[in-house]
Write a structure and sequence with these properties.
InterPro entries: DUF2045. The protein is an alpha+beta fold. The chain has helices at residues 20-29, 32-37, 51-63, 109-113, 122-132, 145-152, 202-205, 255-264, 336-353, 374-383; strands at 76-80, 100-104, 134-144, 163-169, 171-172, 174-179, 184-190, 194-198, 210-211, 216-227, 246-254, 266-267, 270-271, 274-275, 282-288, 295-302, 363-373. A hairpin with a 6-residue loop joins strand 15 (282-288) and strand 16.
């Protein structure tokens, strides 16, 4: 069915302004470059390159068409500077001013922005706000490798985790530089064009996520499930996407791979940040997503006391996805009392059932952040039709 052609009116009354669903339909039509970036052969329309089009859509969607959420409403509006993206890249040590700025919402765009509109990249600003004002959750789970393989082969449509934690996260063009010794963020740095989903209380949230068996896998899912990109409107063009959950990131890594990286003290992406602890050390480990898409930052600590580190290169392993949403990366709330009990039980179980394997160490894995390029997220929010990963 052909998409409904919508003309952006010069008037802004409630009666003739297009709805968010109608605006999204129009945005999809003029966002073919996002499809091109994913390898499909599509022509970029003239409208897609027209800053006036994106300025008007931005105004209608996030200023005049703002949806109230009561006390929890986010009234921050992001603007991406009109500069070459070559100046940004993915360099975490980027110096100078960030490539974006933030303003508080006002009823008119001129009052929000108040500067020369040519200073803003309106297309990228629209997509940054579309992402920032969408609702996301992350699922961290322990699963068996056998269950994951059955899912890949189509035997299990839904994965049954051994243990899981679901946490609301927020999209940000900035990344948090966590310090493992202080267990809190000490600074925030620009991440754009990456979008980061940080878990500030990672040490408490995931304190009970402990891998205790060699067939355990550490699984991470990032889902979008409402907000700006999935507006709850009925009877309109894209009603089929209402209340839809979209999986933006899905990956898992095995216990042996985490263990090897943890002991090696160095990953293929750079040095770990190793902090000496008693009874165990904590390492910052970076895991690449399936197909090299995205990066997951995890704090890994051994429950058992380790008196030395084994040095040596990791042996990254990568499996391609088979169309069901789960892939294998390359190496990559419960109460504290419950977590402590679980950790003790895990160590006792490992000691009693694996006496022949004296090196088995229960590993606690606390997700700190997920980072994905903005255009990957925007593409999936607009175009992805694959069913979400259920766990």
């Amino acid at each position: 069915m052909a998409a409904k052609e919508i003309t952006i009116s010069s008037g802004f009354s409630d009666d003739d302004s297009p709805s968010r669903c109608e605006l999204l339909s129009m945005v999809r039509k003029h966002s073919r470059s996002l499809v091109e970036a994913r390898g499909d052969d599509e022509e970029t329309s003239d409208v897609e390159m027209d800053s006036r089009f994106w300025n008007r859509v931005f105004d209608l969607y996030f200023v005049r068409g703002r949806v109230s959420k009561g006390r929890e409403e986010d009234d921050m509006i992001f603007f991406v500077k009109n500069m070459s993206m070559d100046a940004y890249g993915f360099n975490d040590s980027m110096e100078g001013a960030p490539p974006f700025f933030v303003r508080r919402w006002a009823p008119e765009l001129e009052k929000v922005f108040g500067e020369n509109p040519t200073d803003v990249d309106w297309r990228r600003s629209f997509f940054l706000n579309l992402i920032a004002h969408t609702s996301f959750s992350v699922t961290v789970a322990i699963c068996s490798i056998q269950d994951l393989r059955k899912h890949q082969e189509g035997e299990n449509l839904e994965i049954s985790p051994i243990y899981k934690v679901v946490k609301t996260v927020y999209a940000s063009p900035s990344r948090v530089n966590f310090q493992l010794d202080f267990k809190k963020a000490v600074e925030t740095l620009p991440a754009y064009p990456n979008i980061c989903f940080a878990v500030d209380d990672f040490d408490d949230t995931f304190d009970a996520v402990v891998l205790t068996e060699t067939d355990h896998c550490y699984c991470v899912l990032l889902n979008a499930h409402g907000g700006a990109a999935l507006p709850a409107e009925s009877g309109l063009v894209d009603n089929d996407r209402q209340a839809k959950k979209i999986t933006l990131f899905s990956g898992f890594v095995s216990y042996p791979m985490i263990r090897e990286a943890y002991e090696a003290g160095r990953s293929r992406f750079g040095s770990f940040l190793s902090i000496g602890h008693s009874p165990a050390k904590t390492d910052r480990i970076y895991m690449r997503g399936p197909g090299g898409r995205g990066e997951v930052e995890v704090a890994v600590s051994g429950i058992a006391d380790q008196s030395h580190q084994i040095s040596g290169p990791p042996s990254p392993l990568q499996l391609s996805k088979k169309g069901l949403g789960i892939g294998l990366g390359t190496v990559v709330h419960k109460a504290a009392e419950a977590a402590s009990v679980l950790a003790k039980q895990a160590y006792a179980a490992a000691s009693s059932t694996r006496k022949s394997d004296v090196d088995l160490i229960p590993l606690k894995c606390c997700l700190m952040s997920i980072a994905l390029p903005w255009d990957y997220i925007a593409h999936d929010l607009l175009f992805k039709e694959n069913p979400p990963v259920n766990m």
